[in-house]
Amino acid sequence: QVQFVESGGGLVQPGGSLRLSCAASGFTFAGYSLAWYRQAPGKERELVATISSAGSTNYADFVKGRFTISRDNAKKTQYLQMNSLKPEDTAVYYCRAGLVYWGQGIQVTVSS
What we know:
By secondary structure, the chain is an all-beta fold. It has strands at 3-7, 10-12, 18-25, 34-39, 46-51, 57-59, 67-72, 77-82, 91-97, 101-102, 106-110. 0% of the residues lie in helices and 51% in strands. The radius of gyration is 13 Å and the shape is globular. The mean pLDDT is 97.
């Protein structure tokens, strides 16, 4: 059974940092490409960052230079380090493995 446990979200002031974690189980984690998505209220879900099984990364333009995606295959966990956060980064963040496995989502709120 595929399961994800997301953690690390919360409330942070503009300019602050958070690190999201997504611990997975129930599938061969190391062989999957991974991604983070986000969805703000009233908006469509959008891709934030991806990391391939080989470790290659890609980022949406709106997070380049601020966010870093990484993975630890031994821990079956993916991460999203978010720095220089802006109010417009406020959203529910979702981890994804492959094309069909999704985490439950975690709230990130950037506000003073």
